[in-house]
Automatic annotation (TrEMBL):
Molecular function per GO: glycosyltransferase activity; peptidoglycan L,D-transpeptidase activity
SUPFAM superfamilies tied to this protein: L,D-transpeptidase catalytic domain-like
One GO term of the biological process aspect: peptidoglycan-protein cross-linking
Listed Pfam families: YkuD
Domain L,D-TPase catalytic: 80-217
Pathway where it operates: Cell wall biogenesis; peptidoglycan biosynthesis
CDD domains cross-referenced by the UniProt entry: YkuD_like
Family designation: Belongs to the YkuD family.
Species name: Sinorhizobium sojae CCBAU 05684
Keyword Transferase: yes
Descriptive protein name: L,D-transpeptidase
Any one of the GO CC terms: extracellular region
Signal peptide span: 1-20
Alphabetical keyword list: Cell shape, Cell wall biogenesis/degradation, Glycosyltransferase, Hydrolase, Peptidoglycan synthesis, Signal, Transferase
Length: 245
C-alpha cells in the first residue's frame, strides 16, 4: 500500500492544477464572426414568397445605425404618424410610450427634396413606375426613353412597395419606396423620393394604412454630422437611370 505524506499530496495537487491550466489554455478562444449581426442578416434575408422573389439585401455596405430598430423617440406627433428626418436620413414610425420604429433612408439630392406634410393617398405592391415630366425635361437623354413607364419587377426603381404622398387630395409625385441599392441608404442621391431598403419598405407598408399622416423635416439640426460623398459602385446609379429615382 502506498502512503502519501501531506507534502506529497500538496505537490500532486499543484501539478494537476498546472496541467489543467495548460490544457484549457491550448483551446482556441471563441471569436465573433466578421460581418453583419446575424439578427440583421435574418431581418434582411430573402423573401421567396413575393410576387417577384426578393433576394436578400447585402447590408455589409450599410451603416448599422440605418438598419431597422426600435428606439426612444420624443415627439408631439401621435402614434401612427410617419416622421421623415431628412437631414439625419431617418424615417420614424411613431409608437406608444415614447418609442418609434426607425428606418434608414436615402433622400433627394439638393433642390429635389420634399418638405412639409402629406398623407399616404395610395399604396401599391410591386408598382409600375413612370418618370415625371420634370425628370424627363431635366435629363431627356436619361429619362426620355423611359417616358412610357417601367413594368413591376426587381429592376423597377420603386422596388416591391410604394407609398404615394398626397397633399390636399392631390398626388405630389413624391413616394416612399424600396431600392436595390443598399449602399445609397443614408445618402442624398435620389430624384426627390424617399428610398428604403426593400425589406424595410415592405415592413412599413404592412404597418401603415392609407391616410397615414407624414411629416417631413428639412431643417438641419445643430452640429449636423453630414456623411461624406461616396462613389457609386460600378453598374449602379451612375450607369442605370432606373436607380436614381
Amino acid at each position: 500500500m502506498c502512503v502519501f505524506r501531506p507534502v506529497q499530496i500538496f505537490i500532486l495537487v499543484i501539478a494537476a492544477v498546472a496541467l489543467a491550466g495548460c490544457a484549457s489554455g491550448s483551446k482556441p478562444q471563441a471569436t465573433r464572426p466578421a460581418g453583419p449581426d446575424p439578427y440583421y442578416t435574418a431581418m434582411y434575408g430573402p423573401l421567396p414568397e413575393e410576387r417577384f422573389p426578393l433576394p436578400a439585401t447585402d447590408i455589409s455596405t450599410v451603416d448599422p445605425n440605418f438598419l431597422r430598430q426600435q428606439v426612444p423617440y420624443s415627439t408631439y406627433e401621435p402614434p401612427g404618424t410617419i416622421v421623415i428626418d431628412t437631414p439625419s436620413r431617418y424615417l420614424y414610425l411613431v409608437q406608444d410610450g415614447g418609442m418609434a420604429l426607425r428606418y434608414g433612408i436615402g433622400v433627394g439630392r439638393e433642390g429635389l427634396e420634399f418638405a412639409g406634410e402629406a398623407r399616404i393617398g395610395r399604396k401599391a405592391e410591386w408598382p409600375r413606375w413612370v418618370p415625371t415630366s420634370d425628370m424627363v425635361a431635366r435629363e431627356p437623354e436619361r429619362y426620355g426613353p423611359l417616358a412610357g413607364g417601367v413594368e413591376p419587377g426587381l429592376t423597377n426603381p420603386l422596388g416591391p412597395r410604394a407609398l404615394y404622398l398626397y397633399q390636399n387630395g392631390k398626388d405630389t409625385l413624391f413616394r416612399i419606396h424600396g431600392t436595390p441599392e443598399a449602399w445609397s441608404i443614408g445618402r442624398a442621391v435620389s430624384s426627390g423620393c424617399i428610398r428604403m431598403l426593400n425589406q424595410d419598405v415592405i415592413d412599413l407598408y404592412n404597418r401603415v394604412p392609407e391616410g397615414t399622416r407624414v411629416v417631413v423635416i428639412q431643417a438641419e439640426p445643430p452640429m449636423s454630422a453630414a456623411l461624406p460623398p461616396v462613389e457609386a459602385p460600378m453598374g449602379t446609379t451612375a450607369d442605370n437611370p432606373l436607380l436614381s429615382f
